Amino acid sequence: MAEDDTDDSEALALREAYRASSLHEAHFVAGLMRQAEIAVELRNADVFSAAGPLPALAVAPSLWVRGTQAWKRARKVVDSYERRLHEPSTTESADWTCQACGEISPGNFEECWQCRCDRPSA
Q: What is the value of pTM for the model shown?
């Protein structure tokens, strides 16, 4: 077999790009990959819920892509996802003052707790 044949078969082989901790997470990350226009295959979706005494890693939902280039792109998506998981949340906003009544409401409230007016847009 020529060396080029090996490279071609490896370039087209299915490779595991991500092993998820839950089926929900697997679907979420697969969606991120599809948004990046990466064809992805979800494996162990049916086995995960019926794992029983099987080792968790053996039945964990996993995402597979075809080819080296797709795997590299998929890993960039996964790396970005994992970085966001470990960064402090920027969605937790500071307390805000209602423009209608002047009451201070907690940052996670979408409307004033006092008069129920909507939170002003940022």
A: 0.61
